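WARN no homologs supplied; continuing
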Amino acid sequence: MCGFAGFFPSVNKEKDNFFLQSMLKRIKYRGPDKTSTFRNSKIALGHHRLSIIDLKGGNQPTVDKNTKDCLVFNGEIYGYKKSAKQLKDKGIQLRDSSDTEVLLKLLINFGIEKTLKKIDGMFSFVYFNSKENAIYLARDRTGEKPLYYAQFKNYLIFGSEIKTITDFPLFKKTLNYSSIADYLHLDYISLDKTLFSEIQRVLPGQYIKFHNKQITSKIYWNFNQKIKSSFSEDITISYLENLIEESVKQRLIADVPVGLFLSGGIDSSIIAYYAKKYSSKIKSFTIKMDNKSYDESEYASIVSKHLEIKNHTLLLQEKDLLESLSHIENKIDEPISDPSIIPTYLVCKLAKRYVKVALSGDGADELFSGYSPFKHIFIMKILSCFPKFTGEFLYKIFSSITYKDEYMSFLFLLKHISKGIGHQTNQQIFRWMSSFTKNDIDKIFLSSFKDKFLEGEDIISFLGNDKVNKKTSTHDQITQIFFENYLPNDILTKVDRASMYNSLEVRAPFLEKNIMEFSSTIKSKIKIKRNTKNILRKICKKKLPEIIVKRKKHGFAIPLSKMLRTSLKEKVSDTLTSNKTRILEFVDKKEIKNMLNSHFKGQDNRKMIWSLYMLEKSINNNFNS
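OK structure emitted
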């Protein structure tokens, strides 16, 4: 796992080194083991390394002495030893036993298209083909590893985080208000957009080519749910079980200690089962909360004892949450309104004391219908028949009621479900998750901003109307939006940042290529029955205690509503109402104060407040380098 930055073409030795140092200085945490740069008359590259495979070899940027091709790479290629053998069988020499060397030789000998189809892993890389005088930027199939780029004058600038580009000397940045509008609806920025008009992200499953000052792009992989398998449930379970086992086995390969995150839910528990099978001394890591409605540690303890895994548990106190927030908010450069980044950061910090790599259960909910609304699509279809003003009226009532800050309380659920009433079925859950309704936006945001960026079709409508395959079932349309938007732009971005801020590599076995492609063929009636994730529960039936197999999904959350009234009250209020607050360019300061005051008096405005707070912090971190 690493971080990199660079630009093409190069300028001269003195300027190239200065530019690279500027771009790399704020992402050292991504690779504290070694920092290296390379430049020639064509390209300039910089790299921070977190050594996981072949600790002596695999240094980057890597350059082939014969072709003069160059590579910087972030992530891991799983099963790379098989590819190494194929290369050697063809008489191709490898300088070391790293996956970096294998990737470079694959690119040189097979080209970008064949290489991307061949490899499995979590990765982002930049490959310079010297003969073509062209540069390729590519990202893994689900977006586990980030990659951003900008065309600045005649240059292509790129890096692992947005701030590598905004820190490029002379680079002029302007806020992308369309992206901010999307963020208000989704709690993250989607598609290829970023916080800045000049900067784009490489999409999951995409590569771009920069040649003769022109950018072209191609999607090399997508999540195709059109073709459904005729396998019985028993055969499906058996086949998927083998795929998961092999994926976990591959992701345990490292030249450093490997552990796993354990919540006691289905996803992490099945990973723990197979990890224990192939690594008898593996350790697990769990967060324990004071508030019982948020705490999952009891279930993690049950699983660790059943599997005889040494489980390390950290009791979270409020001071831990506050301290972690300070670290996160000083580094975050892309707004993510997901407060679970705080406990995720803390479990990564705990794991880093003992290991350098951790396995996680990310992706299972999106692939195997793990979210509760998948069970209630029929009810959602009924709710779509009501007029929208019904939902708006109910939302207004529920918003005015005070209630306890407990995990997924009944009133909290009613309030957010009301936001979807009258909307298309495939959009409702994403409106439930959103921080702002249209009426909230009308009240809080200045007319100059609303009239230009918030009129017409919003991002959720766009995703539900234009970015799904309408020939598939409603279940599959919802799955597609989750997989292509929420997973890469919220879940995986959150995990990447929380882990990298602690210099920890996190691997997700469920996001293996064969598992994802097989999942797309499984009929919804096998994925969902009385419970979510029916197929994973069946796999776990003889492997884990019954209480774990039957357990409902529980998110990774913190008592944010209460904290905003107590320990975070002054900090958040000062940040959002200061004369230096950047978002006041498009947000009404008076309405922010009203929102804060009503929350302090007992109403629940946590999502709106937190969304604005993280937006302000991420904007500041890009302007105050």
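The longest helix spans residues 474-500.
OK
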